Amino acid sequence: MKLPTREQAGILIVSVSGRIDHNASEEFTKALDPLLDRCTQGASPLLLDFSGVDYISSAGLRVLMMASRRAKGQMGIFAITALQPMVQEVFAISRFNLIVPCYASIESACKALGS
């Protein structure tokens, strides 16, 4: 799984796309690892752009939960933005949006995380 990155307003933005299900969860974990290594206190916040994610399963949520815990343990900032309606519904039902900060758009996330 390739996770293209770019920097905007001092924030590392990672574009995630496709389905994050049981089959993709291990590959997603491996792709996130080097990015999470950089998600430490004083480093750029790590923002996952989910505008291209059309499905996430409980296995995908687990990957995100572990990533969030790791970032918090390293005193880094980790967030998600631009959830598609179906993915947003999964986050709301599972109350996952209370575990990881979620923003409606990249612009709103950059504004909140950049301050």
Topology, please?
Layout: E1 5-8, E2 11-20, H1 22-37, E3 46-56, H2 58-73, E4 78-81, H3 85-94, E5 102-103, H4 106-113
Parallel strand pairs: 2-3, 3-4, 4-5
Antiparallel strand pairs: 1-2
Helix pairs in contact: 1-2
What's the short version?
This protein is of the alpha/beta class.
Give a description of the structure.
- By secondary structure, the protein is α/β, with parallel strands linked by helices.
- It has a single domain (5-108), classed as STAS domain (Transcription Regulator spoIIAA), CATH 3.30.750.
- The protein contains four helices and five strands.
- It has helices at 22-37, 58-73, 85-94, 106-113; strands at 5-8, 11-20, 46-56, 78-81, 102-103.
- A five-stranded mixed beta sheet has the order 1-2-3-4-5.
- Helix 1 (22-37) runs parallel beside helix 2 (58-73).
- The mean pLDDT is 95.
- Overall structural class, as computed from helix and strand content, comes to alpha/beta
Strand order within the widest sheet?
1-2-3-4-5
Low-confidence stretches: none
The percentage helix is 40-55%
The biggest sheet amounts to:
5 strands, mixed
What is the CATH superfamily classification?
A: STAS domain
Overall shape: it is globular
Q: Helical segment tally?
A: 4
Order of helices and strands: EEHEHEHEH
CATH topology: Transcription Regulator spoIIAA
- Which value, in Å, is the CA radius of gyration? 13 Å
Short key terms for the protein model shown above:
27% strand; Transcription Regulator spoIIAA; 115 residues; five-stranded mixed sheet; 43% helix; alpha/beta
